[in-house]
Amino acid sequence: MKTDFQVSNVINNLSHLTFDLSRLPLYFLLMGLLLSACSSNSNEPQPPEILYGQDLCDACGMIIDDARFAAATLLTSGEFRKFDEIGDMMIYHMEHPEEQVQAYFVHDYKSEAWIRGETAFFVEGDITTPMGGSIVAFEDQTEAKAFAAEVNGKVFTLYDLRVEAHLAVHGG
After folding, report:
1. Over the stretch 141-171, which tens digit does the pLDDT of each residue have?
2. In 3D, which of 80, 91, 84, 76 has the Cα closest to residue 130?
3. I want to staple 59 with a disulfide (CB 3.0 to 4.6 A). Which of 35, 39, 92, 147 is the partner?
């Protein structure tokens, strides 16, 4: 029987190996560290997938079709809200304070990559956006300042924008 012969050869070849059971916890610890280092941070909120040309803005109902302006929020309930522009996102959440936001997501105007709104730099100026909010986001503050100079604009943080949105919705 060829199969039995092959199995017995493998067993005979492995029989000289020894395994120190006292080191088993160390092996598990090292394996856990290796796996955690290779995995992404699952606790970090991730942006939603937006189907451009199909998904609708939760604020105005328009089709979201340009990543440069698209924005989203992750609610504490686990639901996402998607927006065709940052201005709509800001006004929507001022009008819906019952929806608690866990994370804000915006696109870097230059690269179109998702970035966290909490760390982004926003430029409001002479910019044409889908709903006229005239706000775009940048990951890099230097790029935001340079763009603001080009569009007769001003640089804001998310906190600043939330204050502006509050004043626009509730007066000041």
Report:
1. 999 999 999 999 999 999 998 888 778 777 7
2. 84
3. 92
pTM over 0.85: no
Could you give the dihedral angle defined by the CA atoms of residues 158, 164, 168 and 171, in that order, rounded to the nearest 10 degrees?
130
Do residues 104 and 89 make contact, with C-beta atoms less than 8 angstroms apart? Answer: yes
Radius of gyration of the chain (CA): 26
| Residue 101 banded pLDDT, cuts 50, 70, 90 | very high
In the numeric block, the tokens 């504490």 are attached to: 76
Rounded Cα distance, 35 and 47, in Å: 24
Q: CA nearest 123: which of 142, 140, 107, 138?
A: 138
Our CA angle for 116, 93, 85, nearest 5°, is 60
DSSP state of 62: P
Task: Give the number of residues written for the chain.
Answer: 172
Beta bridge partner(s), residue 72 = 82, 105
